Amino acid sequence: MQQLTNTLLGGLTLGLVFAAFALALVLIWRSTRVVNFAQAPMAMLTTYVALTLLDDGLPYWVAMLAALACGLVLGAVVEVLLVRRVSHTVEINPVILTLGLFIVFHAVAALVFGNQPRSFPAPFGIRGLSVGGQTIGVTGTDLFAVVAVLVVMGALVALFTLTDLGLRMRAAAFNSEVARMLGVRVGAMLTLGWALAALVGSVSGILIANGSLVSPNYMDSVVVFGFVAAVLGGLESPVGAVVGGLVLGVSVSVVSGYLSSQLVALAALAILMLVLSLRPGGLFSTPAARRV
After folding, report:
1. Crossing angle for the helix pair 39-55 and 2-32, nearest 10 degrees?
2. Is 91 exposed, middle or buried (0-12, 13-18, 19+ CB in 10 A)?
3. pTM, whole model, 2 decimals?
4. 41, pLDDT greater than 90
5. Domain, as residue range, for 157
């Protein structure tokens, strides 16, 4: 029973890691209609900013806020200077551009920060919590991740469903020409979408780094599972991203703990195929409007 409990708790924690990254993908997709493959290295760069400030003696929360601010600026700069130049050509070009940025940002990080893994501190420690005289596989830092992911999810839901800004961002992403006719500043909305997505990605980068080692490729193993979690949820729903991450995390943890860690990738693929076979749009997809 103790092993099962720790396996499930570890799966939930791992699922939140996937969910944190999936939320950034959901935001960039809903606000710009682009799948950003450079989301992970962008988050990695801002995490290095936080780590550099921590090494200089600044408090954890100051370093985290600085990293989030850098993510906001980096996302806006990437959209204005690069993505906007190719967004009016073939639709696939922005996606290809993000693949190129994936490689470039890795190279930049290796040149500036080096390839040597560096330890990132955990804000609330890495010791398991004691419940009923027994230590469980959940740390204070894990609980912080739970709260952070839920706050980000709630903020995104509120943004897209309760605010006029969210409506304008979605309109700019779905049909820029009609949005311009209605007075929406499409360029500004797309820039804001990239900036906010990079900010959320920075949150995920720090949550993943907490209490572990950071290197230029430390998020690469999360990218695939984060994409799978986002697709499971439907790429449109922040709630779906979190649920998809939790489902994937628990499943992967059970497979790794009771079968073999070598079957993890196969299990993730099987879950993705099963869900998309039953609901091609994802677990939280909504029926598309029928055109007459």
Report:
1. 110
2. exposed
3. 0.88
4. yes
5. 22-128+135-220+233-238
